[in-house]
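Chapter summary example: a protein plus zinc ion.
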Amino acid sequence: MKKRLTCPCGVYVRGTDEDDLVEKVRQHLGERHPDHEYSRDEILFMAY
Ligand SMILES: [Zn+2]
């Protein structure tokens, strides 16, 4: 299961599971990258 993602801006995001990771990444995107929106699949594609 993928639970980690490093944003291109260098921020490391870690979740307890995929749902939590997607939620946290969306939160980060909303705060730092409001002009970028990614689907769950895209987020999980970048995760590891
Ligand atoms: Zn970022």
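Key point: Strands lie at 4-6, 12-14.
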